[in-house]
Amino acid sequence: MIGEYPKFPEFSRSEISERLVPEIRHWALTNGLIMYPPHPDFSQGAVAPTTLYPTPFPRRSFDQAISVQTLYNALYANIAQDRGEWLSKEIASLAEFDPEFTGRLWNLYVQAKEKGISQKLALGVFRSDYLLDVASLEVKQVEFNTVSVSFGGLSTKVGQLHKFLNDTGRYSGDSGQPFYQDEIPVSDSAFLLAKSLAEAVKHFQTNNSITIVAFIVQKGERNVFDQRILEYNLFEHFGIKSIRLTIHEINSKTHVDPDTSRIYYTPSGEEISVVYFRAGYSPSDFVNEQDWQNRLTLETSYAIKAPNLLTQLAGAKKIQQLLTDESILQSFISDASTRRKLGSSFVKIHPMDNSEAGLNARKLALDNPEMFVLKPQREGGGNNIYKRDIPGFLESIPEQDWSGYILMELIKPEPTTDNIVVKADQFAQEPILSELGIFGYVLFDESTIYLNEYAGWLLRSKSSSSDEGGVAAGFGCVDSVVLY
Ligand code: ADP
Ligand code: MG
């Protein structure tokens, strides 16, 4: 039991369905806490899956996660700066085990380097994800995301929703008083992530007084509104326009000046200063050779990429595993107390290669699979292999391919039993596990970090009976916290 956490309101099923669920729906539809439904009719949004109440989270652990974010930002910027080509070497060898994706991205980077990369600045927009370890009350890192981090927009909305329901007394029955006296913070991620793009625009060198930001998106994306929230914040607070393009559309809707490498949006002729990727992290985002070519065009253009290919590749799970090796971490961070702070958020991650450590891990994976999750070099959910599925999976693939995976100790969070998940026309009280994400951004070139900031947070919850947690994939919901 995680100490004394605030109790949940107690309502009957009929009070929930007749009073609270309609409150959530109206607030969500009015304020854009929405997604497209699984089979989108693009004229209608659906209320995003959410919890009825904020989930209690220890303030100390919440603050711990926030306090390491700028350290992580700097660490990953340093890695992507690729001094000494450590990242290049690691990705080049990883590429062999994942030729269809990591390999192709790596190839694009090599081609871009040969052609010449004119823009030295890169923007990292990151999210570090954690589960709360019940034994130590420390947050432990699940993964570090360096491309297409999502839910920064909806996180602000769900915090506002829960705070509204509390402050207006909706959680208190008829008294009209707030139910929770403890803080229900609202994540500033919708604004701060927009600010990260605005900062990059500000650092972009151009003679044009107006430039635009290109959001690179997936066709048929269901989580459009989360992205739109950033676009509207970008315009409202910073006066910066944005356009949305799929990777497929780059060759028909943009053109590059061959002398300057500057890239323009063809319909308006406006210069694109920042290319912000909310696509390009999965093989299915590239349907033909032209699409790969288009990604290369963006990489060699003068626009600032958020992220560039190296920064994206630095988010490989293999890199996360390597950083848990003290001597590798030390080569990036000389300060021992910084290493200790980061290290307190690590769990053990083993290589699965032919090294001695790798051979030991292979044995662990086969003998004690229930302690582990096996991860390939993919993003976006649905790719991991959990617990007892691991041995059978390993046996089903050639042994030389095992090196492309990492074996990660399972973090043990405690389920929250009294919250209620509201999804489409249903709601259910079920034990949930919550994953805290902390956003951050960093603007850097090969030698210098110009900006390094925290950018808000996100809580996603999922039924504790499912291993995976993707909201867009239908496994989870957006949540917020009540700090205690
Ligand atoms: P993806 O790139 O697909 O998001 P993740 O590494 O984030 O992959 O894993 C997906 C989900 O699996 C996480 O959201 C979490 O619920 C669960 N998970 C991953 N690693 C661990 C771990 N070490 N301990 C417990 N759960 C984990
Ligand atoms: Mg994840």
TrEMBL record:
InterPro entries per record: Glutathione_synthase, Glutathione_synthase_a-hlx, Glutathione_synthase_C_euk, Glutathione_synthase_N_euk, GSH-S_sub-bd_sf, GSH_synth_subst-bd, PreATP-grasp_dom_sf
List positions binding substrate: 127, 147-150, 221-223, 227, 278-281, 460, 471-472
- Glutathione synthase substrate-binding domain mapped to chain residues: 211-314
Residues given in the record as ATP binding sites:
143, 317, 375-384, 386, 408-411, 435, 462, 468
* GO cellular component terms, A-Z: cytosol
Pfam families on file: GSH_synth_ATP, GSH_synthase
Question: What catalytic activity is recorded?
Answer: gamma-L-glutamyl-L-cysteine + glycine + ATP = glutathione + ADP + phosphate + H(+)
Per UniProt, the enzyme's principal EC class comes to ligase
Which positions does UniProt annotate for Mg(2+) binding?
143, 145, 379
**What EC designation does it have?**
6.3.2.3
Q: Which cofactor does it need?
A: Mg(2+)
User: MF terms per GO, please?
Assistant: ATP binding; glutathione binding; glutathione synthase activity; magnesium ion binding
Record family assignment: Belongs to the eukaryotic GSH synthase family.
Q: What interactions and quaternary structure are annotated?
A: Homodimer.
| UniProt protein name | Glutathione synthetase
